[in-house]
Amino acid sequence: MKSSYLSITARYLALALVALLTMGPFLWLLSTALKSGSENIFQYPPSLLPAQPTLENFWRVIDTQPFLLYLKNSVLVAGLAVAANLIFASLAAYPLARMEFRGKNLIFILLLSSMMIPFQLLMIPVYNIAINLGLQNSYLGLVLPHACTAFGVFLMRQAFLGIPRALEESAMIEGLSRLQIWWHVLLPLVKPSLATLAVFSFIGVWGDFLWPLIILDDPGYYTLPLGVNRLANTFSMDWRLVAAGAVFSILPILAVFVFSQKYFIEGAMRGAVKG
Fold first, then answer.
1. pLDDT tens digit string along 57-85?
2. How many CB atoms lie within 10 A of CB 121?
3. ABC transmembrane type-1 domain: which residues (predicted)?
C-alpha cells in the first residue's frame, strides 16, 4: 500500500514538473507584459512576479498599433478556414470511409503521403496560383490554403469508420440521399472529432506567419502574427510591449481550447483507437 502511494506521488510530481515546464514560457511572457517601465526585466536573479503590475503596456500596444484590426482579420480568416476545413474534409472523408470504389485505398495512401510534404516545398507553386487568381491582399487568399487539409480528411475518415453501417442502411431505406445521410446522420455522431479538427485548424491558422507574410503587402489585411512581428520591429528595445502583443495574440487560442476541451479530448481519444 505504501509503495502505491509513493508511485502515485511520484507520478503527480512528474506531471507537475512537465506542466511547469510547459507553462513556464507563457508565465514569463505574461510577467514581462505586466511589468512597469521602472522595472528591469533583465535583472539577475530574475523575478517572475512584477513589483508593480500594470496594464499600461497593453493599452500602449492598442494605441500605437491597429491591433484591433489585426484581431478582426485573424478572427475572420480563422473562422472561415475552420468552417471550410470542417465541411470539405468531412465531405472528402465520407466516400473514403463509407463507399466502395476503384482506387480508394490508393487515394488514401496518397493523401497520407501528402502529409509528409512540408509547406515550404509547395510555397512557390501555391503562391503562383494565388497570384494568377488575383488573391493577393485578400481574405480569400489567406483562407484557401487552409480550406481542406489532409490531416482533417484522415481524422474525419477515422471518425466515420467508427459508426455502425446499420444506421446508414436504415437511412437509405427511409429514402435519404448520400448527402442527406452525411449531413443528418453521420455529422451529428462525430461532433467530438469535428471539435478536435476545429481546434487543430484554428491553432494552425491563427498562428500561421509564413503564408500571410508572403501573400500580403497591405497592412490592412495583416493578421496578429504579422502584427506582433511589426510590433517587434517598431519597439525592438521595449520587450514589455512585444510581450504584451504576444499575450494579446495567445489569449484567443486559450479561450477556444478551454471551451472545447471536453470534445477535443474525447475526439482525440476516439481517433487514436479507431483503425
1. 888 888 888 888 999 999 999 999 999 99
2. 9
3. 71-260
Output the DSSP codes for 216-228: ---GGG--HHHHH
pLDDT value for 3: 67
Give me 261's grid cell: 476541451
Q: Residue 232: CB partners within 8 Å, gap ≥ 6?
A: 242, 245
Q: Which residue shows C-alpha cell 489567406? A: 142
Least confident of 124-138, 186-200, 235-249: 235-249
Distances (CA, A) of 55 to 106, 248, 254: 56, 12, 19
Position 275 pLDDT exceeds 50? no
Supply the angle between the helices 56-64 and 67-98 in degrees, to the nearest 10. 90
Asked whether the whole model's pTM tops 0.90, one would answer: no
Read out DSSP for 170-227? HHHHTT--HHHIIIIIIHHHTHHHHHHHHHHHHHHHHT--HHHHHH---GGG--HHHH
Q: What percent of the chain has pLDDT over 70?
A: 93
33, 244 Cβ separation under 8 angstroms: yes
The DSSP call for residue 136 is T
Q: Which of 208, 226, 217 shows the shortest CA–CA distance to 146?
A: 208
Could you give the CA distance from residue 202 to residue 255 in angstroms, rounded to a whole number? 11
pLDDT tens by residue, 160-197 = 998 998 888 888 988 889 999 999 999 999 988 898 89
Spatial contact of 245 and 32, defined as CB atoms under 8 Å apart: no
Closest to 189 (Cα-Cα) out of 168, 166, 160? 160
